[in-house]
Design goal:
The chain is mainly α. It has helices at 3-15, 19-31, 38-51, 56-73, 76-85, 91-100, 107-112, 117-127, 133-142, 153-161, 174-190, 195-207. The mean pLDDT is 95.
């Protein structure tokens, strides 16, 4: 069995296990954002700012503690303290980015102006400080977009481990991101699932967790 066949077999095994229930639950949560408010979308954007080069699990704790109201209204100093108290990395930068992102507090309205996910992702990555291609993809997946890849270290490590890429890139330029994303989405198509679903299964393979 080739490395790729082994990876596919592991994902299919998870798909046929109780993990599928957790994955489907999480996917429904993502889809539910279509009916949520600008404030809740902004909270999710702030969560994705928090997760850049940091742990998602502490990002979730901070999001729960601050909520949309805290992200929108607390001072930069107050937000910084909450981030620091949760032992989350880059508290100064991230509190600053969150306050600056308030310029886009109507993020749902801005995203809804276009149905082209890739154009929206470009716009987010170019205009919102603290958000790169990975974080923009993370945000869009979490608010219900399905056919993009979140190329975090877990996914890249799996791709390297199973021979889908030769080397883990030191820097994810837009060109490299799109090249690896194509490999990811091709794999999703072969497994008859969308990108959001594949991401959750692959993340579980590396972490034994279904987060967001």
């Amino acid at each position: 069995m080739s490395k790729l066949q082994s990876l596919k077999a592991q994902i299919i095994k998870l798909q046929n296990s109780n993990i599928r229930i957790e994955v489907e639950k999480r996917l429904k949560e993502f889809s539910s954002f279509a009916k949520k408010s600008n404030d809740e979308w902004f909270s999710e954007l702030c969560f994705c700012i928090l997760t850049a080069n940091s742990k998602a699990v502490t990002g979730i704790k901070i999001q729960q503690e601050l909520g949309a109201n805290g992200f929108l209204n607390k001072s930069e100093k107050e937000i910084c303290k909450v981030i620091q108290d949760n032992k989350h990395r880059f508290h100064n930068n991230k509190s600053s980015y969150i306050v600056q992102a308030r310029e886009f507090k109507n993020i749902k309205n801005l995203v809804k102006k276009s149905k082209d996910t890739l154009s929206i992702r470009n716009w987010i990555a170019e205009n919102i400080k603290g958000i790169g291609y990975k974080e923009a993809s993370h945000f869009l997946r979490n608010i219900g977009k399905k056919d993009i890849a979140i190329l975090d270290r877990h996914i890249l490590n799996l791709f390297k481990e199973y021979g889908l890429i030769n080397e883990k890139p030191k820097t994810l330029t837009k060109k490299i991101y799109l090249e690896i994303e194509k490999i990811f989405l091709d794999l999703a198509e072969k497994l008859k699932m969308n990108g959001a679903e594949l991401d959750l299964y692959m993340w579980y393979l590396k972490t034994n967790k279904i987060l967001k």
